[in-house]
Amino acid sequence: MMRIGVRGVTVRGPGLSGWAQALRVLRGEEDWVPGPVHLPPPDCLPPNERRRSGAVTRLALLLADEACAQAGLAVSDVRGVFASSNGDGAGMDDILASLSVPDGEVSPTRFHNSVHNAAAGYWTIGHGAITPVVALGCFDWSFGHGLLKAAAECLVERKPVVLVAYDAPIPGPIGRVRVTKDIFGCALVLDAEDAASGLAVLDMSCGVGPGEPEAERQGVYGLIDGNPAAKALPLLAALARGQNRRVALDGASGHLSIEVRPC
């Protein structure tokens, strides 16, 4: 079993505009009203890179910065795990469209913005951080595997780790096969040192087979069907409600069982 503390958390998606507002929705104190997701250009990037950054990069950087600020940590003190199932699908669609025509050319700028670790790289470059950052993609299980990776690294290295999970719709032919309906992302700052001084303690263990039958997805939980990163919503709800609760996240093989205990 791994025991880890949660020091910071945030979320962005339709009708979810940061932790303070999402807290009320996940507690049932405010109706969930789907709406557009506003993603301001990242202040940490130089003007040229800021203009070139796509929606996925803007989402990831916004989440990482919000979670670290809530935890009261400087980016230079935090390791990172950036987990995304789709990566920058819009950038990839643009590249494939360019290659599909005669004499098609791909801009080097477009290419380096499309790679899977672009958001993680921009985050470290924008903040001048030299702490290790990992980018991973595990199909529909990216949030769960990202959480497992972040928790393990946090325990081994005894350093805080920010997990950022995010995905956005993919345009073009790929998007008709790999359907992602909404833009959604969340971030958690994990800390193994003095775990009980944060928002909650997570006791995590791995099991075989599926975790538990899926509950009916109504209201805000319907986002789970439209975005792999939204599989984080049951865990986010447990953190918001400040209640002891078991959450299971299915993985590529087996599941991650999480006992949530508020501090």
Automatic annotation (TrEMBL):
Originating species: Brytella acorum
Signal sequence, renumbered to the chain: none
Beta-ketoacyl synthase-like N-terminal domain: residues covered: 38-180
The organism's place on the tree of life at top rank: Bacteria
GO molecular function: acyltransferase activity
Protein name, entry field: Beta-ketoacyl synthase chain length factor
Any coiled-coil regions, as ranges: none
InterPro entries: Ketoacyl_synth_N, Thiolase-like
